[in-house]
Each structure stands twice: as C-alpha cells, then as structure tokens.
Amino acid sequence: MRRDPARHVRWFVPVLVSAGLAAGGCGSSKPGYCSAQTNLKNDVEGLTKVSSLSGLQSQLQKVQASASSLVSSAKSDFPTQADAVKSSVSALVTTLKEAPSNPSAARQKAPAEIHAVVTSVNEFANATKSKCS
User: Which domains does the chain have, with CATH numbers?
Assistant: First the structure.
C-alpha cells in the first residue's frame, strides 16, 4: 500500500489555520490588496478541506495564485509583508511538490512552512488593517 503524504499534512493544517488567519473583509472603495488578502485567507483555509495529495496540490495552486495577486497589488505599499507572503508560500509549494518523492522530508518541513504562511498572512492583515477594515 502506498502512503498518502497528504494524510500527514491534513491533520495539522486545520490546527494552524484555525490558530488565527485574520479576516480581512474589504469593500469596493478599498485598495485591491484588501480583496486579494481575503482571497488568500480563504484559499489557505481551503487547505483544511483536502482529502488527497491531488486535492492538496490543487488547493495549493489556488493559494499560490492568490498569494501572487496579493504580492502584485501590495508590493509597493507593503513590500516587507508582501515579500514574506511570497517567500512563505514559495517554500510550502516547493516542499509539497517534493512530497511524493520524499514524504518523510515533507512531513518534517510542512508544519513549519504552513505556520509561516499563516503568520505572513496575519502580519500582512495587521499591517493593512487601517486600510482594509
């Protein structure tokens, strides 16, 4: 029987995500990065609903696209936070792409990387709170 690397990732994703992605609801008169932040938050939370490696990879593509949109729209106003989001998502994507060939390494790296994504999104939300709330 083949091991499912996603199984090992699934149990800690809900814990990390529920530990605190800040909601960032945004209206139409707010900067574009407000809605991009909400989309990224929702896509990261969507990681909790995956049940297979292919589902995890698909959801991760959504996270990656949302993060790219956020970084593009916020880089000039919040370069440090945008870079942190980009870097943390990139590290997680790399680890999960390697999961099928090296599940042990993915199990070791992924929890910290997921936490880094959640942290970077929260820090972005905190930095943009006055503009997006």
Answer: 5-17+30-126 (1.20.120)
